Amino acid sequence: MSQESNDDSLGIDKLSVDYDYLLYKIADYVSSIEFQTNQICKRQNELITKDIVNGIVDENIKHFREILTKCEKLENYFDMLDQINMITENFKTRLAQVARDYKELQKP
């Protein structure tokens, strides 16, 4: 009987080795899946973060362009004011000349 237990007639030792090997393969497979899942999640996170950052950057660029457009319009308004100032200065000079001419005509 002791020899039968040494011979492992029921195959318990082999079953134990097979079981351990199966657990090892399962753990290895789970680790592989975990690694791939982590890589995919990291990549997705990078894409989302990058897209969010890019979206924010794109939105900021859009706002800066709008501000730049407003600044250009403002600059045009100042140019118009300068032109109006030149016209009014010229008009004042001409009006003063007309007033002098009128006074000359009024003299007897």
Annotation keywords:
2 helices, mainly alpha, 0% strand
Describe the structure.
- It is found in: Cytoplasm.
- It comes from Zygosaccharomyces rouxii (strain ATCC 2623 / CBS 732 / NBRC 1130 / NCYC 568 / NRRL Y-229).
- By secondary structure, the chain is mainly alpha-helical.
- The protein has one domain.
- The chain is built from two helices and no strands.
- The mean pLDDT is 85.
Strand and helix order: HH
Q: How is the main sheet built?
A: none
Secondary structure: number of strands: 0
Give the C-alpha Rg. 46 Å
The class by helix and strand makeup works out as: mainly alpha
Q: Mean pLDDT, as a whole number?
A: 85
Count of DSSP H/I helices = 2
**Gap from first CA to last CA:** 158 Å
What level of helicity do the residues show? Answer: over 70%
Provide the low-confidence segments as ranges: none
Strand fraction equals: under 5%
Please give the domain count: 1
Please state the overall shape, judged from the principal axes of the Cα atoms: rod-shaped
Short description:
The chain is an all-alpha fold and 108 residues long. Helix content is 94%, strand content 0%.
Which helices and strands occur, and which strands form pairs?
Elements: H1 2-7, H2 12-106
Subunit structure: Component of the biogenesis of lysosome-related organelles complex-1 (BLOC-1).
Protein name: Biogenesis of lysosome-related organelles complex 1 subunit CNL1
InterPro entries: CNL1
